[in-house]
Design brief:
There is one protein chain. This protein is an alpha/beta fold. The strands form three sheets. Strands 7-6-5-8-9 form a five-stranded mixed beta sheet. Strands 1-2 form a two-stranded antiparallel ribbon. About 30% of the residues are buried.
């Protein structure tokens, strides 16, 4: 009887294992079918988008694509949550993050990120996911922080710290206060130093963490010197006659640096008021310096033949050194520098005539008083 009982129990347990295996296989098959269906439908939407003829049609297709991603992510997440620890659960969560994450962070992405963070941090596939998560909003940042602290793979830890550092560096680009910039640079540098120590040779695109960090740290040096309240470093540009001129040659005068391009509508809209500003401050310690980022100098010179802009001009070209030094990400970008060479204001986009005039007049008055 005892032998019979043991045989029955063994048979029962064996059937349970077979049933469990069958369930795992069934989930994997369902996930594969779901992903193939998604890819096919998304390809069809892309094809329709490429042949769309109106902005409204393209916008409608973007909405359809987002809806498809969200609906499919919900189904995949349900599979992941059914057994978050197994391979299918991991692959389902990966799908949610990679596909739905492209359309912004949402509750599905947050839940999928949590599954990966809680159960699959040691999986090698996590490394390929880090660049995606870097742009996945708060949930992605939370995952990167977890990977930086808990991952056992050095490359995963290094890449997580690298992307965390880049996220802080992005904040620096939007900051104008010198003290806050210093704080952000210190925080970003801490992450980037950890990244280098963990995996300097880890690949980042065609480069490596070590090389990219070195470039970023050099950029930080320039950023620290180009901030409101900081003395401007020596900057050299080229005038329209090809002559090299140092910005320090204007010391003793208030300098309004307007970094622009002829194709920029908001830049062109400022020209009439800039003419008035130059006219009203004639014979006073004030210089307006326009720095062109047009592709070709000829584009600028032809523009100036039709549009009167009677003040100093430099040609910097596309992605020129002056624009890089001044951290230009949009046009127009304006810096107002006092007579001692200290940056007093920065504006991205037109600050408005009243605000601009008030700031300039205050500094011109300071310059006149200082001269006695």
């Amino acid at each position: 009887m005892r032998l019979l009982t043991c045989a029955v129990v063994s048979l029962f347990l064996g059937s349970m294992l077979i049933f469990a295996d069958d369930t795992k296989v069934e989930r994997a098959v369902k996930l594969d079918a779901l992903i193939k269906k998604f890819d096919k439908e998304m390809d069809e939407l892309k094809s329709r988008f490429n042949t769309a003829t109106t902005p409204a049609e393209r916008e409608g297709l973007r909405t359809e694509a987002k809806e498809l991603a969200v609906i499919t992510a919900q189904k995949a997440l349900a599979m992941a949550e059914a057994d978050p620890k197994d391979e299918t659960g991991f692959n389902a969560a990966l799908f949610v993050v990679e596909k739905a994450g492209r359309f912004g962070s949402g509750k599905e992405v947050d839940s999928a990120v949590a599954i990966i963070s809680d159960h699959h941090m040691a999986d090698p596939k996590v490394k390929g996911l880090l660049s995606v998560l870097a742009g996945a909003g708060p949930s992605g940042q939370k995952f990167l922080q977890s990977a930086a602290e808990k991952a056992t793979d050095k490359e995963v830890k290094g890449l997580a710290n690298y992307y965390l550092g880049l996220k802080v560096a992005d904040e620096i680009e939007q900051e104008e206060d010198g003290k806050r910039i210093d704080e952000l640079i210190a925080r970003a540098t801490e992450f980037l130093d950890k990244a280098t120590k963990e995996a300097s040779g880890a690949k980042v695109g065609e480069s490596t963490i070590g090389k990219e960090v070195a470039t970023q740290l050099e950029a930080f040096k320039a950023i620290k010197s180009i901030a409101v309240g900081k003395a401007l470093p020596e900057i050299e540009g080229t005038d329209l006659d090809g002559k090299k001129i140092k910005l320090s040659s204007y010391k003793g005068k208030v300098v309004l640096v307007d970094i622009w391009a002829t194709w920029c509508g908001p830049c062109r809209a400022m020209i009439p008021h800039e003419r008035d500003l130059v006219k009203n401050l004639k014979d006073k310690p004030f210089v307006l310096l326009s720095v062109s980022c047009d592709d070709q100098q000829e584009t600028l010179t032809k523009f100036l033949e039709k549009e009167a802009m009677p003040w100093a001009h430099w040609f910097d070209g596309r992605r020129g050194s002056v624009a890089k030094t001044f951290r230009v990400n949009a046009f127009p970008t304006l810096y107002l520098i006092d007579h001692t060479g200290v940056i007093r204001h920065k504006w991205v986009g037109s600050p408005g005539t009243e605000k601009l005039d008030t700031a300039v007049e205050e500094l011109v008055t300071e310059a006149i008083k200082a001269k006695g």
